[in-house]
Amino acid sequence: MAIAKSTPRIVELATQISKSVADLQAVLDAKGVSSPSFDENAPPKLPKEANDAQDAVLDATAELHDLLLEPVTLVLKNSANNSMGSLGFMCRFDIPNMLPLGGKLSYAEIAKKTGFAEFVVSRFMRDCVCMRIFRETEPGVIEHTKTSKALRAPWFLAWLRAGAEEGWATMLGVVDALQKWPNASESDQTSFNIMHNTTGSYFENVANDPEKAARFGAGMATQWEFPGYQLEYLLDGYDWAALGPVKVIDVGGFKGRISIALADRFPNLNMLVQDMGMNEKEAHAAVPDELKDRVNFMAHDVFGTQTESADVYFIRQVLHDWPDKYGIKLLRSQIPKLKKGAKILLNESLLPETPGSSLPLWKERDLRTMDIGLLATMNGRERTLKEWKAIIAEADPRFVLQNVVQPKDSMLAVMEIVWNP
Question: Which stretches does DSSP call E strand in 149-236?
Fold first, then answer.
């Protein structure tokens, strides 16, 4: 009896890509949205109804691409980060805003405005063209794509510049740092400290450098734009209304953007934002008048003993910045003011237990890259659900993880912890 010949993987992938692209295009047609394009005025995002098809296409195309590479080429593709030099040039001189919308800009003009030789400018810019950030529509002349247009936003460019000028250098010393401090347990014993020849944690350094602080603020704004991190997942995915009239402390809530959004949507919530080094008066002045009585601010060391009683303590993407022992310390610091039934809501990513087990691989790769960045910068980490459970249990056995909610397509889960003394 003849053994049936299995379909080659590359053919399976091509078939899957064809089907998923057809599914995606059907969604776009139904929504009246144009097909993806690099055109300057093309829609920057796909409708959420296309997310499943998008995940399938991106995972399959990435696998097909990698299958067709030789091992040396595959490793080179994943290790050659020299393009950060080109991105750094683009950011420092703000080329996206130098190029007018709907207009053209020559390499000769960029050279004149930056003081760089034109043959150097052309090398940087053509690297950006190959990354599909710009289009070279005629020799030596660029136009916008939707990506370069998006980079005109100050927060987006500042975030990328921080990565090009600080993040890239920080990553280069991560192995040296771990050889020097193998336990990765302190926020001031990191690659950041080695590569930037500094003491203190990344946050301490940012607080003492206005330019770094401005870029950090821009990076915080950028978070809301990343796929899967938008606030709507938090607002729609957890039943805030069911809490009833409650006081919520937003621990490490920065300038209160989340608290303002929650108070605006849910009139049952009274928010108090706590963070280190906060200017309470300045922060409160930025709150819309109609919410000022329900959104307040308090300067507070998030690792210090909690001094305010509340029904709910909300902590979003704070613990991932820190080594385990500091996450445990932060949870324990809330205990003195916890009453029976009080809740701590951790809004954090859940790393898959093994690659490909619970996330589309293209999204998981971004999350794992972020995890390595946290390691290099602060010895922070993204964690699996099992690792989160271990931290919660170590903090105090009276903390009970009651529920885990992760809305579809969200990169963050809400872990609902109840205090049960």
Answer: none
pTM of the model: 0.90
Residue position matching structure tokens 């001189």: 93
Say how far apart CA 212 and CA 202 lie, in whole Å. Answer: 10
Q: Which of 402, 393, 415, 413 is nearest to 341 (CA)?
A: 402
Q: Are 135 and 105 in contact (CB under 8 A)?
A: no
Q: Which CATH number fits domain 226-362+378-419: 3.60.110.10, 3.20.20.480, 1.10.3720.10, 3.40.50.150?
A: 3.40.50.150
In our burial notation (b when 16+ CB lie closer than 10 A, e otherwise), range 170-186 reads bbebbeebbeebeebeb
Q: Give the catalytic positions in this structure.
A: 320
Architecture of domain 81-151: Orthogonal Bundle (1.10)
Q: What is the domain partition of the chain in residue ranges?
A: 9-73, 81-151, 154-221, 226-362+378-419
pLDDT in tens, the chain (421 residues): 456 678 999 999 999 999 999 999 999 999 999 999 999 999 999 999 999 999 999 999 999 999 999 988 888 787 778 899 999 999 999 999 999 999 999 999 999 999 999 999 999 999 999 999 999 999 999 999 999 999 999 888 888 988 888 888 899 999 999 999 999 999 999 999 999 999 999 989 988 888 877 777 777 777 777 889 999 999 999 999 999 999 999 999 989 999 999 999 999 999 999 999 888 999 999 999 999 999 999 999 999 999 999 999 999 999 999 999 999 999 999 999 999 999 999 999 999 999 999 999 999 999 999 999 999 999 999 999 999 999 999 999 999 999 999 999 999 999 999 999 9
